[in-house]
Amino acid sequence: MAEEREELSWELFGTASRELAHTIAEDGFAPDLVLSIARGGLFVAGALGYALDVKNLHVMNVEFYTGVDQRLDLPVMLPPVPNVVDLTSKKVLIADDVADTGATLKLVRDFCLDHVAEVRSAVVYEKPHSTVKCEYVWRHTDKWINFPWSVLPPVVQRSGQVLDA
Taking every annotated instance into account, which residue ranges of this chain make up the domain Phosphoribosyltransferase (predicted)? Predict the structure, then answer.
């Protein structure tokens, strides 16, 4: 029997991101910039940026997952790393798709802490074992999540070889 998974469609993602934005706004937090954790956080950051009327979006590339439930020992920041001058004294909203172990969010939050006025995190999903408890969470789950942007295999491999449909 296949493991039950959390299914997020594009339509449900639209609902989730809008509800997450309402939660942030109702809490009174008005970020100066949204810092997305690439790759999954790009979608969340873009949606929140529009909904919260924040045009200042930054990206932090972090590699941690290598496959379904497979990850590196520690998350690794990939270049280009944001310039801390761009973050100084700002209210920063870190956006990601999921707080699974919390290791990626902790790395990014720790990177920000000494430079920003305030930092908070928003995720679509948070798992119970996450070491980082986000201020803004759409749903809690302990299941593996099928996100609409990553459920299908790549169209091309990194080597450029086209895959069969």
Answer: 10-151
- CA separation for the pair 129, 12 (Å, rounded): 24
**Dihedral through CA 120, CA 8, CA 14, CA 108, nearest 10?**
20
Residues 59, 101 contacting (CB under 8 angstroms): no
The answer to whether residue 101 is domain-embedded is: yes
Average pLDDT value for residue range 20-28: 98
Q: Which domain holds residue 12?
A: 8-146
Q: Is residue 147 within 8 Å of 8, Cβ to Cβ? A: yes
Q: Is residue 156 part of a domain?
A: no
For residue 2, tell me if it sits in a domain: no
Q: Dihedral sign, CA of 24, 135, 110, 142?
A: negative
Q: What is the pTM of this model?
A: 0.86
Q: Is residue 42 part of a domain?
A: yes
pLDDT tens, 113-134? 988 999 999 999 999 999 999 9
Mean pLDDT over each residue of the chain, to the nearest integer: 88
Cα dihedral angle (119, 49, 128, 13), rounded to 10 degrees?
Answer: 180
Res 1: pLDDT? 46
82 preceded by a cis bond (ω within 30 of 0): no
